[in-house]
């Protein structure tokens, strides 16, 4: 739960902000405290469940990796045995069909018939061949046993962990999701915008044509230009990005975006690290950095100090400038700058919806199981009874909490702006004014007003 005080004018004291009217029953306080404690308990339990699921998944992934390594080692061992077996069999065939065997046949044909005492050496020559055949058969049996053992290990692993995977991973989300009818045109628009932002321009154009969408041409042009710049950055070419930043220097300056300086800094660092001559970086700095002396004097000084550590930059105090992630960082910075300039979202709406839904899915599934056990109706609820944990970057709506009743605003109980500038909920205004029949005093300051002098706030 998020509690906050919305104050537009004045600085209320802590005592006056928390003043409770004498007509308020004490029972309501106890109920509110009980609800707050119950909410904290449920949130704590949810976090504990999420942590347990994360640990289980980590253990499963570790065991999967270990089993994979064992299987790879066994597979390599089997391959080595098969190769040795093939080499042995090919060597035996070569000895049988080689030139030595033909010479032996010719000598046997030309020689007179030997006596019974001369047949013993031939029997001795056939004995090694029989031994080799027996060894080859034994190797085949061993390879087959190894294959059976590997198959048994895989089946045993699947049998042991498939139940745990099904238990910890939500495979069926139909119960958690509400089957609301979606506007097909809006869905197609979400997909088309995602394709544009992902750089799939031709697919997005085809989507717009098939669905009859009318996206603004500036939206398409923005991402065509952006992905041309990003393609050049992937090839370590920053000139298109620099040209774009210089072209929109005034607009970016009004938005307080320093993408031009970040690009020049990266190019200077790249020249200093890759060029064998230190003067190449110095000449580039003398040409490009004077424009930023007034706005980035300290950072320019740091860049010029890097020249002193040429040859040992990774051991210098400025080694953070030369890390391997600098190209990824400038990639994201260019995307943010271009989207901010064109007033389009940095992340597509489709990606945002998916991320928020995935992060909320474990808590929603747990809530659904609890509600099923209590026979509660899921579809009839307008508001969830507990808070769903979602990352901060996925929160886009302000929440007003009344400083008097500690309740969050709802459509039925909206925030009301008083004459003095303080804000309380509508139920408190109704209670203080005795059902809108008389003047009342602000609970934070001594200003008096009537209900007609108040206004509803919309966030």
Automatic annotation (TrEMBL):
<feature type="region of interest" description="Disordered">
    <location>
        <begin position="73"/>
        <end position="147"/>
    </location>
</feature>
<dbReference type="InterPro" id="IPR024964">
    <property type="entry name" value="CTLH/CRA"/>
</dbReference>
<dbReference type="Pfam" id="PF10607">
    <property type="entry name" value="CTLH"/>
</dbReference>
<dbReference type="InterPro" id="IPR045098">
    <property type="entry name" value="Fyv10_fam"/>
</dbReference>
<dbReference type="InterPro" id="IPR006595">
    <property type="entry name" value="CTLH_C"/>
</dbReference>
<feature type="zinc finger region" description="RING-Gid-type">
    <location>
        <begin position="402"/>
        <end position="445"/>
    </location>
</feature>
<dbReference type="GO" id="GO:0005737">
    <property type="term" value="C:cytoplasm"/>
</dbReference>
<dbReference type="InterPro" id="IPR044063">
    <property type="entry name" value="ZF_RING_GID"/>
</dbReference>
<dbReference type="Pfam" id="PF13445">
    <property type="entry name" value="zf-RING_UBOX"/>
</dbReference>
<dbReference type="InterPro" id="IPR001841">
    <property type="entry name" value="Znf_RING"/>
</dbReference>
<dbReference type="InterPro" id="IPR006594">
    <property type="entry name" value="LisH"/>
</dbReference>
<feature type="compositionally biased region" description="Acidic residues">
    <location>
        <begin position="135"/>
        <end position="147"/>
    </location>
</feature>
<keyword id="KW-0863">Zinc-finger</keyword>
<dbReference type="InterPro" id="IPR027370">
    <property type="entry name" value="Znf-RING_euk"/>
</dbReference>
<feature type="domain" description="RING-type">
    <location>
        <begin position="402"/>
        <end position="445"/>
    </location>
</feature>
<dbReference type="InterPro" id="IPR013083">
    <property type="entry name" value="Znf_RING/FYVE/PHD"/>
</dbReference>
<feature type="domain" description="CTLH">
    <location>
        <begin position="223"/>
        <end position="279"/>
    </location>
</feature>
<keyword id="KW-0479">Metal-binding</keyword>
<dbReference type="GO" id="GO:0008270">
    <property type="term" value="F:zinc ion binding"/>
</dbReference>
<dbReference type="InterPro" id="IPR017907">
    <property type="entry name" value="Znf_RING_CS"/>
</dbReference>
<dbReference type="InterPro" id="IPR037683">
    <property type="entry name" value="Rmd5_dRing"/>
</dbReference>
<keyword id="KW-0862">Zinc</keyword>
<dbReference type="GO" id="GO:0005634">
    <property type="term" value="C:nucleus"/>
</dbReference>
<dbReference type="InterPro" id="IPR013144">
    <property type="entry name" value="CRA_dom"/>
</dbReference>
<feature type="domain" description="RING-Gid-type">
    <location>
        <begin position="402"/>
        <end position="445"/>
    </location>
</feature>
<keyword id="KW-0963">Cytoplasm</keyword>
<protein>
    <recommendedName>
        <fullName>RING-type domain-containing protein</fullName>
    </recommendedName>
</protein>
<dbReference type="GO" id="GO:0034657">
    <property type="term" value="C:GID complex"/>
</dbReference>
<dbReference type="GO" id="GO:0061630">
    <property type="term" value="F:ubiquitin protein ligase activity"/>
</dbReference>
<dbReference type="GO" id="GO:0043161">
    <property type="term" value="P:proteasome-mediated ubiquitin-dependent protein catabolic process"/>
</dbReference>
């Amino acid at each position: 739960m998020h509690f906050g005080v919305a104050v537009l004018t004045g600085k209320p004291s802590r005592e006056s902000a928390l003043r409770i009217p004498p007509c308020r029953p004490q029972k309501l306080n106890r109920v509110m405290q009980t609800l707050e404690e119950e909410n904290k308990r449920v949130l704590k339990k949810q976090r504990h469940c999420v942590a347990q699921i994360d640990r289980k998944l980590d253990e499963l992934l570790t065991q999967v990796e270990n089993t994979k390594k064992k299987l790879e080692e066994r597979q390599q061992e089997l391959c080595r045995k098969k190769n040795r077996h093939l080499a042995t069999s090919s060597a035996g065939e070569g000895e049988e069909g080689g030139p030595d065997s033909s010479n032996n046949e010719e000598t046997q044909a030309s020689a007179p018939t030997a006596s019974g005492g001369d047949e013993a050496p031939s029997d001795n020559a056939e004995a090694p061949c029989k031994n080799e055949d027996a060894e080859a058969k034994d190797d085949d049996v061993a390879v087959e046993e190894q294959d059976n053992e590997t198959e048994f290990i895989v089946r045993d692993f699947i049998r042991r962990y498939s139940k745990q995977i099904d238990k910890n991973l939500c495979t069926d989300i139909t119960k958690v999701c509400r089957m609301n009818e979606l506007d097909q045109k809006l869905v197609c628009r979400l997909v088309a915008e995602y394709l544009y932002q992902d750089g799939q321009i031709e697919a997005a154009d085809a989507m717009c044509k098939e669905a009859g969408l009318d996206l603004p041409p500036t939206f398409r042009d923005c991402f065509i230009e952006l992905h041309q710049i990003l393609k050049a950055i992937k090839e370590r070419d920053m000139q298109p990005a620099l040209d774009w930043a210089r072209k929109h220097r005034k607009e970016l300056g009004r938005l307080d975006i320093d993408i031009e300086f970040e690009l020049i800094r990266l190019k200077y660092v790249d020249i200093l690290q890759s060029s064998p001559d230190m003067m190449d970086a110095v000449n580039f700095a003398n040409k490009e950095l004077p424009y930023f002396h007034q706005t980035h004097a300290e950072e320019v000084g740091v860049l010029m100090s890097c020249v002193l550590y040429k040859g040992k930059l990774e051991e210098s105090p400025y080694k953070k400038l030369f890390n391997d992630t600098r190209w990824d960082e400038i990639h994201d910075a260019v995307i943010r700058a271009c989207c901010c300039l064109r007033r389009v979202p940095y992340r597509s709406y489709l990606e945002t919806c998916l991320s928020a839904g995935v992060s909320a899915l474990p808590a929603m599934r747990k809530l659904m199981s609890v509600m099923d056990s209590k026979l509660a109706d899921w579809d009839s609820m307008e508001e969830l009874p507990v808070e769903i944990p979602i990352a901060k970057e996925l929160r886009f709506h302000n929440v007003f909490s009344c400083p008097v009743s500690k309740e969050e605003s709802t459509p039925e109980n909206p925030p009301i702006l008083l004459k003095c500038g303080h804000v309380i909920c509508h139920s408190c205004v109704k209670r203080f004014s005795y059902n809108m029949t008389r003047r009342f005093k602000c609970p934070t300051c001594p200003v008096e007003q009537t209900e007609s002098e108040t206004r509803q706030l919309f966030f």
